[in-house]
Predict the 3D structure of the following.
Amino acid sequence: MKSTNNIIQRIAFILLTVSILFFSCVEEKNDIIREGNPKIEKLGENLTQLKELRDNSRYGTVKGQYPEESKQILDDAMAVIGRLIMKMNDGINVSDSEIEEATSRVVTAIENFKSTIRTETQLFPAELYVNGKEGGYIDFGTSPAFSRFGTYGNQSFTVELWVKLSTTSGFGTIVSTYLEDGDEPRYRKGWMINHFNNDYMRISYGLNDYNLWEPGDGFRDLNKWRHVAAVYSDAGVDGSKEGNNPVVIKYYIDGELKKTQINNNPGSVYYNAADDKGKAMTAFIQFNKNGNQDRQAEGYIKDFHIWKTAKSGDEIKRLMNKEIIVTGQEEDLVCGWDFNSTVEDEQSIKDLTGKYSAAVKGKHEWIMLE
């Protein structure tokens, strides 16, 4: 393999040498290597044909693509051609039979390579990495269902997912329907799970009076899967109260209750309808009111669900532990994406309910699991 790779690395040099021999006025090195040598010309054409086929083919797990390992078929044939050219370059005689054999091997290699094209999509267990700091993000589309969960002032919903962050620097969006505008008539709408100040994970809810509720907890773990869940209810989650004030938010990390939020102002409620500005729900970036990317994050996401009910602490743990298997048939499931395997079409990833589609944009990668 090392020898083959060394040969391939020298191909660019060999092609340059061939070009010089053909098209430059140079002194003949010897009787074998000389300007206009038809043997070199034929080998150069074969080499170019193999390289263009390798470099211009599409590789992946989708129907119509080639497996990555199929490149080796062409690389091996290129190595044979490369060795012959180097022999001739070194003044070593190459017989017609050697060239015919090499040419035949090129034809066979091309046939063998083309026979490996995928006739159906193969999906493999994988993790989805998205780098919002370099323009990557997930676009879940726009739907009122992502941010409206009942009548105004009487809403309940749960957002839960697994996230693995590659960095926690700055202010980064994990998933968001949030939108704000500080100009009159100013507003803050929707919700957003985000990391903040390098060491904090929280969920932000826009309120009808332009204020925010942002319960969260310390978060410094990089490259480690953590389960995050936030439960909201205007009436009080699980009917919980502190004094006469309802506990409207419960925030969980890895199934453990980390923070609560009470509402001591009956006039303040979660303000929805972020989508009335045509804003999509997104992950790893947020779009501001002008449509510009903002608050980028970098990491992985899986098992992302939105529920139109306030889940109990026990249900959060069971979801986290997969004691509850989400199928898409649940009456209170708004939407859900597993993101646990490669997909056939990255621009149309159906959710578990079949109602919505997500698209992965920009810098991202499916990391295959062994």
User: Anything to note?
Assistant: Residues 18-34 have pLDDT under 50 and may be disordered. The two ends are 23 Å apart (CA to CA).
